Amino acid sequence: MTQIVLEGRGLTKRYGRVTALNGADFDLRAGEILAVIGDNGAGKSTLIKALSGAIQPDEGEMLLDGKPVRFANPLEARQAGIETVYQTLALSPALSISDNMFMGREIRRDDLLGRWFGILDRARMDRIAREKLTELGLMTIQNIGQQVETLSGGQRQGIAVARAAAFGSKVVILDEPTAALGVKESGRVLDLVLDVRSRGLPIVLISHNMPHVFEIADRIHIHRLGRRLAVIDPKAHSMSDAVAYMTGAKLPEGIAA
Amino acid sequence: MTQTTPDAVAQFEHRRTALESLQHFLHRFPTMVPILVLIVSVIGFGLIANNFLSPFNLSLILQQVAVVGTLAAAQSLVILTAGIDLSVGAVMVLSTVVMGKLAVDMGVPAPLAIIAGFLCGVATGWVNGTLVTRLRLPPFITTLGTWNIFIALVYNLSGRNTIRSQDIDANAPLLKLFGNNFQLGGFVITWGVLLMLAVFAVLYVALNMTAWGKRVYAVGDDAEAAALAGIRVNRILLSVYMVAGLICGLAAWSAIGRVGSVSPTSFAESNLESITAVVIGGISLFGGRGSIMGPLIGAIIVGVFNSGLRLMGVDVLWQLFATGWLIILAVAVDQWIRKISS
């Protein structure tokens, strides 16, 4: 049995009379790509928000590497090694690629200028940013000082994923990474996700795009009515099965109605 | 796997027209617009207005923009965060009154009175920043309110009286430090001009070379994205308003030197003049864009137009007319440049 990196047990979240999460379980294994699929309103974004610290579940517990954790905000989740690439990407278009990579965790110079006046170590930040992008095959002609808004959608996605992969030590969560992209750019981003996995980081992939999910996921977590319905192996099930499970038209074998 | 390299998407060829090239150039260097306007206007007035290019007149322009220029530096910080501070002028006048009142009327040692004036500026910035971040009020409305409140405080503290120049000379000449000048070639440079330049230089370093500066831009560009990326947006905003308040305190010291006295009714227009300088300087009112050096040039452009038109002997109304068109031109250019990102 492979090691479980991130685990949720009986997670529940209510908003007034609406129950968005209803005792949901979740587990992410080391080195895998786990896709999370579900119909609109099934509670998958609430689940992801709980995992990334954006909301706090009312009940249930979360374990990171087997140790119980509780994140009061996304910053705490990040400090614990969980990086999230939001659908909005959380990039600052007017800033450079390098500035965006280090947004919120800039590197200061080692000397007095850095310690007393917070002067940035520009050269080091640029070097690391270039290295990280090169590792993921994203860096050939791009100028690291180029503004993010001059990049294409796929390239922006690439920067956001590279940032998460560079700083996420335990888990990378990707929220609809291909939703806004064309076919060619989607393919490139999926390759990038596989690259990140090959470097040993487990990935949670939230997507509506079944072909993409089936192309790269190792396991598929199907979310329905606020909880996990099943985890299926994409090699053993078809896309239409998955959609049927998601919508309740059909139940996976071994699950009682 | 696709055959193309991962960055190939950026390589598609699109032949730019001259206009598009200009647009991209200005997008990268937004301060080039005010620089060009400044160069053209200086040459233009030099050709048509008598004595415009004399060292005396050029020095005078700088002296005249020193106070508003310093205020524009404070205003720039707030506008970079996609806010606006309508209270900068009132804060400056309040700080002059605090300095003058303490040092001249109450006999407090001048250095302490000046520090009190700075603290007054920082405190007003804290008030503005707290209202904007904690109560989540729009900066425009917040500072419209505090502008009135600070002016009321000015009248209350000063008793509507002006502190006369000779009383300052007798009790606290240090208050007039920035009115002192020195000769450089034929130029007469006041300390107030140097203060303005120093404030811009320090802000240039702070905004471009420190983490704080990058965060100010990020917050102004997209506050939500900045928050998701782990920046504590409210802390940055509060710090911006407080630094702006401190700069207003510095501008207050400079202002006493400039006019020689402390008057509760002076600099009534300086709020809007500071915004004018920032806008002409190419800083986007939508936040996150523009160089801090732009407003310095913007302030000087307004000074150049006022001086040139005055030397040509045209009615004062044409100065306002010209400033008005400069603002509209600047905002139109900003809108055009920003189209690139969409």
TrEMBL record, chain A:
Source organism superkingdom: Bacteria
GO MF entry, a single one: ATP binding
Residues of the signal peptide: none
InterPro entries referenced in this protein's UniProt entry, alphabetically: AAA+_ATPase, ABC_carbohydrate_import_ATPase, ABC_transporter-like_ATP-bd, P-loop_NTPase
Keywords: ATP-binding, Nucleotide-binding
Family annotation (Pfam families): ABC_tran
Keyword Nucleotide-binding: yes
PANTHER family to which the protein is assigned, alphabetical: CARBOHYDRATE TRANSPORT ATP-BINDING PROTEIN MG119-RELATED, SUGAR ABC TRANSPORTER ATP-BINDING PROTEIN
Name assigned to this protein: Sugar ABC transporter ATP-binding protein
Species annotation: Paracoccus sphaerophysae
TrEMBL record, chain B:
Protein's UniProt keywords contain Cell membrane: yes
A GO CC term assigned to this protein in UniProt: plasma membrane
Membrane topology, record value: Multi-pass membrane protein
Localisation per UniProt entry: Cell membrane
Annotated transmembrane regions: 32-53, 65-94, 106-127, 139-157, 184-207, 236-256, 276-305, 317-337
InterPro entries: ABC_transp_permease
Keyword Transmembrane helix belongs to the record: yes
UniProt entry keywords in alphabetical sequence: Cell membrane, Membrane, Transmembrane, Transmembrane helix
Principal cellular location given in the protein's record: membrane
GO terms for MF: transmembrane transporter activity
PANTHER family: ABC TRANSPORTER PERMEASE PROTEIN YPHD-RELATED-RELATED, RIBOSE IMPORT PERMEASE PROTEIN RBSC
Protein name: ABC transporter permease
Organism name: Paracoccus sphaerophysae
Upper lineage: Bacteria, Pseudomonadati, Pseudomonadota, Alphaproteobacteria, Rhodobacterales
